[in-house]
Amino acid sequence: MYLSAWMVIVFLALVAIGYFLVRQHRLLEPLADAQATRASLKKNRKQPFAEAMHFWDTLDWNTPSGQQPVSIAEDFPRYGALLNALPYAEAEKAIVSLLKKAAHKERLDLYRYFVVLSKEYWHNPNAISTNERLYAVVLRQVVQCNRLDSYERKSAQETLDLLNRNNPGNLAEDFIYTTWNGKRYHLYTLEAPYTLLFFYNPECHACQRVLEEMKQDKRLTKAIQHQELTVLAVYIDADEQVWKNHLAEMPSTWIHGYDKHQQITLKRSYDLKAIPTLYVLNRDKRVLLKDASWPQIASHLFQSLP
Length: 306
Fold this sequence. Notes:
Blueprint: H1 2-53, H2 72-85, H3 88-103, H4 109-122, H5 132-144, H6 150-163, E1 176-178, E2 184-186, E3 194-200, H7 205-216, H8 218-225, E4 229-235, H9 240-245, E5 255-258, H10 263-266, E6 277-282, E7 287-289, H11 294-304
Parallel strand pairs: 3-4, 4-5
Antiparallel strand pairs: 1-2, 3-6, 6-7
């Protein structure tokens, strides 16, 4: 009898110990899973950067682009999208690594080809992939590449200087515009809580489309009426008569001027690679939005206004 009782006690003790161990294991499972997930995420964060760094490893660097076993032009959009999604510091490192590698090869064909593709992908005004910061990285490498001729390096420096103008947070470049009656004014003489610059040509189809969107936006009309915003529409081309012929089509509540002596274009005060080009400035003429679309401007501006 006593033996049976002891056997029952031992059995129950073993069951209790087993239950405790199973419970502890289950409690630790989520912790282990969380640690594994964090390790996996950390590893996955490194994968896009590693892919960018080794994206072009299969290239024959001494063979012209047209004779490569892979199509560089077809693959570049995937490479560009990969870099656009990376943190800036990692994307910059990948670009510098690529161009430095190309610059040390016997032939510079691929170096120049990558620069051209970079411009098409990151500095195309009609592309959603536009990324001036990454294109500026490319331009800085071109300026520093002593193997390129002086014209290439000078051209890159001029474009880089242009990219560095009128960036958000900086003061806008001042310019003179002439009104229909021949009077001349500086941008900085305008006094308004916000100034919207609209560089355009009335015969440009894209300009006409954006202009119509702006004219139909009642929020813009209201902001002008309440003196919360001034719109300065600047005709940037040389034929003054074309501008005057279309003035009647423009909103009368806007300020209208033209660049009589083409100083904006000649001095490259603003990056007008395509029109229309729109900027938003604050009261101090500090740039808030640069080369933005009308929907982007409307979303930003009318959230700021009362």
